[in-house]
Amino acid sequence: MDLDKILKEAQESGQTQKYSLRSVDSIEEDVRVALLKMLDRGAKPSGSLRKALLEREHPVEIVDQVIARFIEVGLIDDYALARELALSMSTRKGKAKGLISIELREKGFSKDAIDEAIAEIDADSELEAAKVLAVSRMSRMADLDNDVRSRRVAGYLSRKGYASNVVWAAIRFATDSLVK
């Protein structure tokens, strides 16, 4: 890293005081320590780590360099983390692919990591999850009129991100299974 370049950019941005007496190695070590502390609290996507480090006013070049090195050695793995979160959101929280994609994007994952993560969720498993949720929800509303139950479950499944064809297929399944 070129110290003169960093000092020039710091001077232009008004951060001369912060970097003028420090070497690039010292700044790099500060970024490395801050990044390790963030990762110590739990795995996070590289996008959110980068944003947090830049908010702490670390130089962009050094932040990018340290994050790239952490990715290279496997301390940051966006693809594995995205797969893990997508699986968790799908199985434990019953969310659909579309909503999972939106939430992963908000967390700072790249489009490639999101696409790979949600590719593992197929349409059949999504329909089965919607059916389980619909049966569970409808059975708790046994005292309500069938139309009211259907509307409430449709709203619930829609908020989970399921497409309308999946929602109504799940409601039909739940209604049939609860009648028997």
Summarize the structure.
Helices cover 75% and strands 0% of the residues. With 180 residues, it is mostly helical.
Helices and strands, with pairings:
Elements: H1 3-12, H2 16-19, H3 24-40, H4 46-55, H5 60-73, H6 78-91, H7 97-106, H8 111-119, H9 123-139, H10 146-159, H11 164-179
Helix pairs in contact: 3-5, 4-5, 6-7, 6-8, 7-8, 9-10, 9-11, 10-11
Task: Please name the defining characteristics of this protein.
3 domains; mainly alpha; Arc Repressor Mutant, subunit A; single chain; 11 helices; 180 residues
Approximately how much beta-strand content do the residues carry? under 5%
| Shape field | elongated
Helices, by number, come to 11
Radius of gyration from the alpha-carbon trace, in angstroms: 24 Å
How many domains is the backbone divided into? 3
Average predicted local confidence, pLDDT: 86
Q: Which residue ranges are poorly predicted, with pLDDT under 50 across at least 5 consecutive positions?
A: none
Give the H and E element order: HHHHHHHHHHH
Descriptive account of the structure:
- The chain is mostly helical and 180 residues long.
- It folds into 3 domains: 3-73; 78-119; 123-179, Arc Repressor Mutant, subunit A (Orthogonal Bundle).
- It contains 11 helices and no strands.
- It has helices spanning 3-12, 16-19, 24-40, 46-55, 60-73, 78-91, 97-106, 111-119, 123-139, 146-159, 164-179.
